[in-house]
Specification:
Largest sheet: none
Order of helices and strands: HHHH
Strand content: under 5%
Helix content: over 70%
Number of strands: 0
Radius of gyration: 31 Å
Mean pLDDT: 81
Number of helices: 4
Shape: elongated
Structural class: mainly alpha
Amino acid sequence: MLRALISSLSSLRTVDRIVQTAKRLMRQSAVIAVASALFLMAVAFLLVLAYQALMAVYDLTPMASAGILSGALILSAMLALAVLPLMEPKQDHRPMLSLAQNDAADAIYGALRSSMRQVGPITLLAAAFAAGLLASRR
């Protein structure tokens, strides 16, 4: 009965963590979407401005201005694609604790706390000392 209660409490905590993470990710994705839309509008304005500047300052034809801008965009896209693999995070090869292991640890700590409340810390310490002595004799 106690195990079922502890496992249900730990699963409720897990569900609560998942819900909080999902809400945080939704807020972050909304902020990123708004920022990317503003960034794209700024880039479009910059491209129109650069097109007009090339025609006005250097007396280029509209076709030549468009060609220069498209070449610059292609070169910047190729540079971004070349840098992209370098920006990937290094994978950590350490084993991670799964949720089941965390739940088991939580259950053990809960049982230890309840036994400490029932028996008392001194008695529990004496029992652990006696168990250590008996285990070391073998």
